[in-house]
Amino acid sequence: MAVVKMNQIKTTLAKSVRYIADPGKTRGGALVSSNYSDDVTDAGLLADRMMLTLDDAATSRRADGVLAHHVIQSFSPEDSARLTPERLHELGVRFADEITGGEYQYVIATHVDRGHTHNHIIICAASQLTGRRMRVRKDTLARWRTVSDRICLEEGLTVLPERARGQRYGVSLAELYASAKGDAVKTRIRAVIDMAAAGSHDFDSFRRLLGDHGVRAAVRGRHLTFHDTASGMKVRDVRLGRAYDELNIMARIGRSTVTAISFNRRLVARRDGDMLLIWVPGTGRRQTIAVPATRVVRDGDTYRAYLPKADPVTVMDGQGRYACRMDTGDLHAHFAPLPIRSMGSPQSSVPESFGRSPAHRRWLEMRERQFSQLDELTDRLNLASRLARRGITVAQALAEADRRLQDAHDAFQATLVALDETAAQHDGTVPADLLEELKRHEARVEALAHERDLLRSLDMQTSPIQEPPMQRRTGGRHRTPDPV
Predict the structure, then answer these.
(1) Residue 276: pLDDT above 80?
(2) How far apart are the first and last CA of the chain?
(3) Where does 391-470 have alpha helices with state H?
(4) Is 76 helix (H, G, I), strand (E, B) or coil?
(5) 123 Cβ partners below 8 Å, 6+ apart?
(6) Nearest-angstrom CA–CA distance, 344 and 292
(7) In sequence order, what are the residues at sequence separation of 6 or more whose Cβ sits closer than 8 angstroms to the Cβ of residue 58?
(8) Per-residue pLDDT averaged across 419-435, rounded?
(9) Which one of 16, 201, 272, 366 is most buried, by most CB atoms within 10 A?
């Protein structure tokens, strides 16, 4: 991955050339080249030749005019380790040749004195063919970055994602690298989770496998936080995708679509081998269900059990005798189900490096929230209009949305389990059509979850508010009105 930056040299051209050609930074001058002189050991001579071209230019030299353009092509530490400095120097020469077109003199020097290799290119501001000045427009740097990206991709190197490349307000190279590296770390965490889910039989073994591969998992409420120990980066499950939240990870571990119930530790009657006996709420502690410990995730005093939808649960009486069989869906009449949540995050999407100051960043975040609220209001109004045309109530639409969302999520889970099983049988590879099918199911779940959330907000707005009985003052005391 190469980052391209540029500034202008208006004075001290000779000093700038001497700086980039420093033997201590360029392996004794072996990593210095020029397109107009074979002798690159004399920085003063290189600068003098540029100054002669500038003196002969059609516009000659003006006070405070630009003498040269200083371009920095900086490679990430990973790409710096992948290719030799000599090869990165050759890529820099190719880059310089393309952006100057053989018309402008340049000196290029490759520095190896830091944790990442970077090319310094000083380009004379005047053409050695026509004497005209180089025209630098607003899009010049963007066009040069496109050239650099193409050269890097042809060499098998990485490039910055579009969002990171467009960052503003004095973004440093370290921040740009961190942004792109963050995407790479997330990809690695996903790969480790995929491997661990395929090789685990319960949540504890899943966490152990993650730890063996440098990723720690922490339960934070209904969210999981993954910590990549090599980079120090921490990522919440919502930043990785729906396939990486707790509910769907437990489905992958159990190789089946699951439903979840939540209960407090005080409802745990006892542990019997690999089974937890759970009091069924509302039965006066006269009935229990047996839940495999392998399907339970503990978060402090809260337990979450992930039960296969296709398998009925055995209910036993207070003496431990068989009472009945109950579908997992019927358990929700006793245990609170965990709702399928939207993957939207309350965190700001404004990058850390945006904003000229903390106050400016807060203003950007405030504007982001306002636009988000406006978008949500528009969606609610459009949805209310559609319901009115269809002649159905919000409550009816909400019940239907919950059903459709559950069906879509079941289909997503089933495809996710099938994908994991296919990967296990084919050394980690899966058919492209199965991946596309998973993406379609995930997109549908997201759309339905968003619609469900909009309906809930509409339902809250349209629900009648129960007013307290009117009161009147009598003799300094309040009392309710007399019945008519």
Answers:
(1) yes
(2) 82
(3) 394-425, 432-462
(4) coil
(5) 68, 69, 70, 71, 96, 99, 100, 104, 105, 106, 134
(6) 32
(7) 130, 131, 132, 133
(8) 74
(9) 16
- Would you call 192 exposed, middle or buried from its count of C-beta atoms within 10 A (0-12, 13-18, 19+)? buried
The C-alpha atoms of residue 98 and residue 116 are separated, in whole angstroms, by 23
pLDDT band at 294 (very low <50, low <70, confident <90, very high): confident
Residue 160 amino acid letter: L
User: Strand pairing partners for 235?
Assistant: 226
Residues 338/250, Cβ–Cβ less than 8 Å: no
For the stretch 163-167, contacts whose Cβ atoms lie closer than 8 Å and that sit 24 or more positions apart, written own/partner, are: 163/351, 164/351, 167/351, 167/353, 167/354
Cβ neighbours, 10 Å, residue 437: 16
Q: Please give the DSSP secondary-structure letter assigned to residue 126.
A: B
Greater confidence (64 vs 396) lies with 396
Take residue 75 and report the two structure tokens written for it. 């490679």
pTM: 0.51
Q: What is the pLDDT of residue 453?
A: 82
- What is the reported pLDDT for 68? 93
Q: What is the residue type of 404?
A: R
Nearest to 347 by CA among 467, 238, 196: 238
Comparing 15-24, 252-261, 406-415, the range with the smallest average pLDDT is 406-415
How many CB atoms sit inside 10 A of residue 323's CB? 18
d(CA 145, CA 151): 10
- Asked if pLDDT for residue 376 goes beyond 70, the answer is no
87-97: pLDDT as tens digits:
999 999 999 99
**For 210-230, how does the pLDDT look when each residue is reduced to its tens digit (9 = 90+)?**
999 999 999 887 789 999 888
Alpha helices in 60-202 (DSSP H): 77-82, 85-100, 140-154, 162-165, 173-198
